Protein 1
Amino acid sequence: MIEVERAGRSFTHRRKAGVLRRERHVVHAVRDLTFSVAPGEFVGYLGPNGAGKSTTIKMLTGILTPTTGRVRVAGLDPSRRRTALARRIGVVFGQRTTLWWDLPLRDSFELVRHLYNVDQGDFRRRLAELEELLDLGSFLHIPVRQLSLGQRMRGDLAAALLHAPSVLVLDEPTIGLDVVSKAALRAFLRELNAERGTTVLLTTHDLGDVERLCSRVMVIDHGRLSFDGTLGDLRATAPEESSIEDVVARLYTGGG
Ligand SMILES: Nc1ncnc2c1ncn2[C@@H]1O[C@H](COP(=O)(O)OP(=O)(O)OP(=O)(O)O)[C@@H](O)[C@H]1O
C-alpha cells in the first residue's frame, strides 16, 4: 500500500556567513529511507522533534517531492498524481484543520462530497455511519471555528473518511485531546482498521496511541529509520526499562 525506497528530502537555505557573505546550508530532513506498509497494517511512526516525520508524511501525500529515491502510495507517485491519490488516501493533521473555518461542519462535509465527487447515496450512508461512530450529531450545525478541539478533530476525521479511502495518514491526531476524547478516537481508529481493513500510518508523541493501536512501530531519527518492528520488538530493545516511554527515550538518544 505504501512503498518508500531510498527516499530522501533535503532543504537548502542561504545563511549569513560573515558581514557580506552568505553560504548555502543543506538540511537533510529525510535520508535514504526505505520501508513498506502492507494493506491493513496499523503502523506507528515515531521520532523526536525534527526527526523527519512530517517531511515523510508530506512526501507520502504529494505535498513535497522527494529529492532522491522513490515513493509510491496505492501504486501512485504522490507528487505527480495528487488528484488520483486524493481518492485513495485520507489525511488528518492534528495541528491544523482542513475544514472550512466559517462553515457549519455539515456544509464542510457537503463541500468534501463535491470535491471528491462522492455519490449522493454513498455520502448519506457514510455520513450517517460516521455521525454515529464519532458522535457528531450535536455539533453538525456549528461553524468549525466554534468547535472544541475534540469536536473539530472528530469532524476532520469524518471529512477524511467520507470518500472511503483505503489508506489513512494521521499526523498527531490525539494532540491536545483529553483522556476521554483520546479513548473515543482510539476506539474509532481501531474499529476502522479492524472492520474496514483501512491501512493506517500514524505519527504521534503519545505512546499510549502506539500501545493501544499499532501492530508495528517505525522510529525515525535524524532523517533515518532507526527501528522497524513490533511493539514487543521495541520493548526488547531495552528490557531493563519498565515503561514504553523510557524504552523509546533510549532509542531517541541512541541507546542511552
Ligand atoms: N520547509 C522546510 N524548509 C527547511 N527546513 C525544513 C523544512 N521542513 C522541515 N525542515 C527541517 O527538516 C527537519 C525535519 O523536520 P520535520 O518537520 O519533518 O520533523 P518532525 O519529525 O515532523 O518533527 P516534530 O515532531 O517536531 O513535528 C528539521 O530539521 C526541520 O527544521
Protein 2
Amino acid sequence: MNAAEHSPRRNTVADMEELVSMPKVELHAHLNGSVRDSTLLELARVLGDEGIIVFSDVEHVIMKDDRSLHEVFKLFDLIHILTTDHKTVTRITKEVVEDFAYENVVYLELRTTPKKNDSKGMSKRSYMEAVMEGLRAVTVVDVDFALQTSDTRTSMKGLPINDTCHGARRKKIYVRLLLSIDRRETTEAAMETVKLALEMRDLGVVGIDLSGNPIVGEWNTFLPALKFAQEQGLCITLHCGEVPNHQEIQMMLDFLPKRIGHACCFREEDWKKLKSSKIPVSGERNCFS
Ligand SMILES: CNc1ncnc2c1ncn2[C@@H]1O[C@H](COP(=O)(O)O)[C@@H](O)[C@H]1O
C-alpha cells in the first residue's frame, strides 16, 4: 500500500461538482448573511464615492475570513448600512435566491429581519414588500414562494423540482420566508414583526426566528411575541446556545420551538432536554471564541 492510499481522501473538483449538482434543502440562511461579496464591495464603493463611508476602511472588513462573534455582528451592522434601502433589498433577495438555485438548492428557507428605517422611508412592511419584489424579479429559475395551502407539510410533499416550459426543463426553487426578531428589538417591535408575518402567510411566510447578537437582550423581552406567534400556528426557530447562557438555553428548550440553530454551548443536561423534546437543530454549529 503506498502513502497516497493511507492519506485521507482529498476533495477533488469532481467531488465538488457532484456536491453542487445534488438537490439540497437550505434551512438556515439569513438574507443579509448571504449577500455576494462582489455586491457588498460594489455597494460600499458607491457609498464611498458619496462620502458616506470610507471604502478602504470597510473593504478589508468585508473580505476578512476568520471572524470572532463580536466581529460578525460588527460586519452585519456594516452590511445593513450598505443594503437597507428598498431597491437594494430587492436586488440582494434576487441574487441570493439565484445563487442558492445555482447550487441546486431546491427548498430554501430564507430568514430576514424586517427593518424600520425612517431616513429611507422604510417600514417593516415596506422592507418585506421589497423582499417579495426580489423573489418576483428572479428570472434564471422558477420561484415558488406563495403557499397553496395553510399546511406547509402537506403542500411541500412530493413537489417537482423541474418544470417543463415550452418543452425545455426549467429549474425550480421553493422559497419560504421566516421573519426574524433581532435581540436588540423591544417587545412591541417583536410583536409588530409577528403580526406582519401573520398577514403575509399566504405569501410564503411560515415562521418566526429569534436571532441577533446572543449577548444582547433578554429572553423575556421576546416571549410575549413568540408565544403569540406559536399560538397562531407560526413555526418558531430560535438561535439557542450560541454562547454559554444556561438559564436561557433551558427556557428556550422549555418553550418547545420547532427548531433551534447553533446549540454549540450546550451542557449534558441541555442535550438531554433537546433529545427528549425531539427539537431539530438547523444551521451551523460554529463556536466562536
Ligand atoms: C453567526 N450567527 C448568528 N447568530 C445570531 N444571529 C445571526 C447570526 N447570523 C446572522 N444573524 C442575524 O441575521 C441578521 C442578518 O440578516 P438579516 O438582516 O436578518 O437579513 C443579523 O443582523 C443577525 O440579527
